[in-house]
Design goal:
The protein is mainly α. The protein has 2 domains: about 55-200, no CATH class; about 205-500, no CATH class. It is about 55% helix and about 5% strand. The chain is built from 17 helices and 3 strands. The protein has helices at about 60-70, 90-110, 115-130, 170-185, 190-200, 210-225, 235-255, 260-280, 290-295, 305-315, 320-350, 365-380, 390-410, 415-435, 440-445, 455-465, 470-500; strands at about 135-140, 140-145, 155-160. Strands 1-2-3 form a 3-stranded antiparallel beta sheet, covered by helices on one side.
Length: about 525
């Protein structure tokens, strides 16, 4: 029973990032304005390769153009044609462009985008305004860009820090469309800043009560996904997991309001599910307390964080991959601390938490398919996915889960079945994203929710509590294998879309003779 765990405890949304504060500033600041230039029109964006404006589908192809550039040595990247002397950006305009690129990168990274795609967006913004050569660098909590105007001029490097990144796919879609508009040409830096500020003021697409209910729905649907049962006790198990998730979410929000680290949010958020699951196990009615705990922890166990770490490693961003893996370890430790004490007391007093409910079983495929769709829907709402994208996300989830179920039912190994299903989800997500002109992440992340290895992590945790270290280590290894399979499948789907379904764009990037990338 996978899950939507990468969200973790949901903190109350903070204020919007000020898109006009200077690069490197620690807090909000006044608008960054270009100096008045009566003798010169504002710097306009142009097409990165040949200076001609792009419209239509070709304008959405900046990831296809930028990724090959990022994957070749900086010195081998083709330069843009030189602008006439009077149209070249002056230092103030260069600073404004780099500030815009940094802000876009900061918000993309904070919204959940992968490091390589953040670099691609930053490079697209800088090249659109003729600021080149430049080299963007992104790690887990830092975005930076270096610019070298010429051999006789001093280089310039600016950076920002990203604190507490969290998934926000509506903002991600806004940023993607803004970069597309910049790449299409005809928009100056000031207008780009204004559009970005206006979009950020729109806030969350869903009311707070709906997001909280989605957290409970996610936990309840997860209990059905694990057990796949419709007996008389299934409703009570569903309701118990629903309540446990809501209580855990409120405790996490309470801790977040006092600016305590996310680790402590996970500790408190994991406790209600374990407590309710233990209490249900004491009544002798066999209410499957393990299913309640698994469902209640669905949003906490770091299955998606493991997948994201594997994806970063596949893209060559090894420093970011290591940071994400370490983050997953800390979050898992928080869940362990919150759950272990309760489980230990319960098991020593006769609680029935036997792992009879195999994760991601196929005991009732139609019912589990409905549960998988509900998990995806709740996942998408909690990630603030745009309402217009929800039908495509649910369709992608249905296809992925059905593929997984059919393959497992035919005798395929779960890890291999997960990789094939993730490949389909990744490819379909890329096609949907190109059709909508936005990022593929909203179409892929929630759709993979039912496949994430959260239940495997829970059963491994239960084995450790019982003193069975061998079974626990085997479960952790299985979870890591599932995460790697999902990451490889999504990555292959993405690369297949980029190679065989490229969006039309003027001025194709010439292939590099020596490809490589900086390991960061």
């Amino acid at each position: 029973m996978p899950e939507h765990e990468q969200l973790g405890p949901r903190a109350e949304p903070g204020g919007p990032v000020d898109p006009s504060r200077p690069a490197g500033a620690a807090g909000p600041a006044g608008p960054s304005r270009l100096p008045a230039r009566p003798d010169k029109v504002p710097l306009q964006a142009r097409t990165p390769m040949d200076g001609r404006a792009v419209t239509g589908l070709g304008a959405t192809s900046w990831p296809d153009r930028m990724l090959p550039l990022l994957r070749m040595p900086t010195a081998a990247r083709p330069l843009l044609p030189d602008l006439p002397g009077e149209d070249r950006p002056d230092p103030a305009e260069v600073a404004a462009v780099l500030d815009l690129a940094l802000l876009v990168g900061e918000l993309l990274l904070a919204s959940g985008e992968a490091a390589e795609d953040v670099e691609a967006a930053m490079l697209a913004v800088a090249r659109a305004y003729g600021v080149h050569p430049c080299d963007p660098q992104v790690t887990f909590t830092r975005v930076a860009v270096s610019y070298r105007p010429g051999p006789a001029e001093p280089p310039l490097t600016v950076e920002r820090s990203v604190r507490r990144p969290s998934g926000d796919y509506a903002r991600l879609a806004l940023l993607f469309r803004l970069v597309t508009r910049i790449s299409a040409g005809g928009i100056d830096v000031e207008e780009a800043h204004r559009r970005l500020a206006a979009g950020l003021r729109s806030g969350h697409r869903y009311p707070g009560w709906l997001v909280a209910l989605s957290c409970g729905l996610l936990a309840g649907a997860a209990t059905v996904l694990v057990g796949g049962r419709t007996d008389a006790r299934a409703g009570l198990v569903f309701a118990s997991a629903f309540v446990a998730a809501l209580v855990g979410d409120r405790l996490a929000v309470l801790v977040a309001r006092h600016d305590l680290p996310e680790f402590y949010q996970f500790v408190l958020a994991a406790t209600p599910a374990a407590l309710i699951g233990i209490l249900l196990s004491f009544n002798g009615l066999h209410l499957r307390g393990s299913a309640v705990i698994t469902g209640g922890l669905y949003a906490l166990l770091p299955g998606w964080r493991l997948v994201a770490a594997a994806q970063e490693g596949l893209a060559g961003c090894y420093l970011t991959a290591a940071a994400r893996m370490l983050e997953a370890l800390y979050m898992m430790t928080g869940v362990v601390i919150g759950v272990t004490a309760v489980l230990y007391v319960g098991i020593n007093h006769g609680a029935d938490l036997a792992a009879r409910d195999l994760p991601v079983g196929a005991s009732n495929p139609p019912l589990q398919l409905v549960a998988a769709v509900l998990v995806t829907l709740a996942f998408a709402v909690m990630l603030n996915t745009e309402p217009g994208a929800l039908p495509a996300v649910l369709l992608n989830s249905t296809a992925g889960w059905t593929t997984y179920g059919v393959l497992v039912g035919a005798g395929q190994q779960p890890v291999a079945a997960a990789a094939l299903a993730a490949g389909l989800v990744g490819l379909a997500g890329q096609v949907m994203a190109r059709h909508r002109g936005t990022s593929a992440l909203p179409h892929v992340s929630a759709a993979l929710g039912p496949l994430l290895p959260g239940s495997v992590l829970y059963f491994a945790l239960l084995a450790f509590v019982r003193g069975d270290a061998v079974t626990g280590l085997r479960g952790v290894a299985h979870a890591c294998a599932m995460a790697m399979a999902l990451a490889i499948g999504v990555n292959l789907g993405r690369e297949a879309a980029r190679l065989f379904l490229p969006a039309p764009a003027p001025g194709a990037v010439p292939p590099a003779r020596h490809r490589g990338r900086h390991r960061r």
